[in-house]
Amino acid sequence: MKILLIAEYRDGKLLTGYTEQLGFAEKMGAEIVMFLAGSDSALPNYGGKLYLADASSCGEFNPDAHKKMILEVVAKEQPDMVALAHSSYGWDLAPRLAYGMQAAQVSEVVDVQDKLLVVPACNSKLRRSIRCTTGQTVVTLQAGAFKPVELSAAPQVEKVSMTAEGRVIFEGYEAAAAGGVDLTKAEIIVSAGRGIGKPENVAMIAGLAKALGGEYGASRPVVDSAWVEHNRQVGTTGQTVAPKLYVACGISGAIQHLAGMKKSEFVVAINTDKDAPIGEVADVLVVADLMQFVPIFTEKVQAL
Amino acid sequence: MKILVCIKQVPDMESKFKVAAEGTWYDNQDLAWRMNEYDEYAVEQAVRLKEQVGDADLTVLSIGSDKVKETMKKALAMGCDRGAHIADDAAWNKEPFQVAGIIAEYARDKGFDVIFTGMQSQDRGSGQVGVLVAEMLELPSVSTIVDFGYEAGTIIAKRELEGGIKAKVKVQAPAVVTCQLGLNTPRYPTLPNIMKAKKKELLSIPVAELLKVNARMETANMFFPEKKGGGLVLEGEAGELADRLISILKDKTTVLK
Questions:
Q1: Is residue A134 domain-shared with residue A242, that is, in the same domain?
Q2: Which residue from A224, A234, A196 is spatially nearest to B44, judged by alpha carbons?
């Protein structure tokens, strides 16, 4: 079996996600080739063949151009599978490649069991194993699902002929809002999820954080609702944190949130839903109504 | 201007799920159904675009059994002009390539200027349909948008990347955009608009007329993930739970002095 891995490059830097793609390929026991629209001054550590397009000419984000270049590599290499990260770059590009290759696409692969790809369903409460009926497949891999593999050799670079033509015009990056609290430095974080119900209850979560001597954070829906500012968001599109204690209040535990906090040393989840996926990473799951439990818990912590 | 927004009806994700007897999907009994969260942002943005340009016709499309019409009525009450219900009792078993094929077949000759979809569904979560529809119609597409503007035929959008960074992009209509959470604040339908929505066109089209592509994959098995954490589950009265949690934190962590 041969897998074509698509590495990622952003804002002049090679992203490290390709090491997990290498881990996946190793698990599949596959021969590997790689494609990168990047730069020869930031090459992946991997000893195989690398098809390299110069991002300064073809663009870092140019779906039409990247699709065309990758399909040319596919035509030449005839891989059984093309693997990308399940990221803003990967999930955008994968369906375009799959369409061009007339291939099935399997999104957000978390595991391989009995040679079948496993993906999450229903906010990660369930799993599905997938059987493809096409000769070639395109897959995207969930961040953190496969063990990173770092190979120290330098790749054998083959430059690919480029195109810069594309209908989607990239006009630059907008940096994350700076300033305010730095959650990555907090030893204790108490986070509010959708389960807090209304914005007035943020104060209750902040109160518990203060009683514990920590900071408060929030999951995406709470930030999207503008109940808490973005620099307190924990998850893939916010902060990645690893405090000594993480208390998740009313957070169901979407993959994107878990990816941002699962390295915490000790996790307490407070939730009315015993089956919420947050339970998977929690050391202690307190099955309780936040409105009842948090005020009492806060009071008892203050009394210590 | 002609606008299309595609929505899906999904179970509330807080539901207690069971795997159905045939073993490849969840049991659809005893679930509360709602509009896929990502699609709510898509509908809101489509309605805002219609309000901005004034002279526009906005169609909402959904694939499923008769039950999905309830969710379509919400979209009509939010401001869509007409509904295209693709009647399919086996919609749950369609994979993204087929879903996109159905939508593209419906949209092909209708001249939509902008097609909105959610970036993914909450149940299947493939994140493929919007981009595939664009590929099938040979239109450009922008996925995962958190900001949308439209000016004289040009869409100016921001894509959400990892770590809070955004990418600013521009594309000429006709185009497809897929909407990420937080794109806007979806409106609540008002009572007068809910009443008005009842009178709006909601046509059903048999799926057989639009399904021209074959499935490229199938679910072999649906199952619950193994509980890896093996964490302690505490249940009981709040005061007692608080005491137990404090003693655990004293024992297992260094943060409580």
A1: no
A2: A224
A15 and A7 Cβ atoms separated by less than 8 Å: yes
Rg over CA atoms, chain B: 21
As a residue count, chain B comes to 257
Domain that holds residue A55: 2-159
Residue A30 included in any domain: yes
A200 and A136 within one domain? no
Question: Distance (Å) from the C-alpha of residue B199 to the closest C-alpha of chain A?
Answer: 32
Q: Which residue of B has its CA nearest to A275?
A: B16
Distance of alpha carbon A201 from alpha carbon A172, whole angstroms: 37
Plot region of A235 (φ>0 → left; ψ -120 to 50 → alpha; else → beta): left
| Interface confidence (ipTM) of the complex | 0.93
Interface test with A, best of B145, B217, B227, B248 (most A CBs within 10 A): B217
Q: Are residues A32 and A135 in the same domain?
A: yes
Q: Chain A contacts of B125, Cβ < 8 Å?
A: 107-108, 119-123
- Optimal mutation site among B18, B128, B144, interface A, most CBs of chain A within 10 A: B128
pLDDT in tens, A54-104: 999 999 999 999 999 999 999 999 999 999 999 999 999 999 999 999 999
Is the alpha carbon torsion for B35, B39, B45, B50 positive or negative? negative
CATH number of the domain that residue A203 is part of: 3.40.50.1220
Question: Are A150 and A211 in a shared domain?
Answer: no
- pLDDT (0 to 100) of residue B229: 59
Q: Looking at the predicted structure, is the pLDDT value of residue B101 above 80?
A: yes
Looking at the domain covering B2-209, what would its CATH class be? Answer: alpha beta
Least confidently predicted of A247-261, B50-64, B72-86 = A247-261
Q: Do A129 and B219 touch (CB under 8 A)?
A: yes
Q: Among partner residues A132, A169, A292, which is closest to B216 by beta-carbon distance?
A: A132
Q: What is the pLDDT of residues A198-235, one digit of tens each?
A: 999 999 999 999 999 999 999 999 998 889 988 899 99
Per CB-CB distance under 8 Å, the chain A contacts of B233 are 274, 279, 284-285, 287
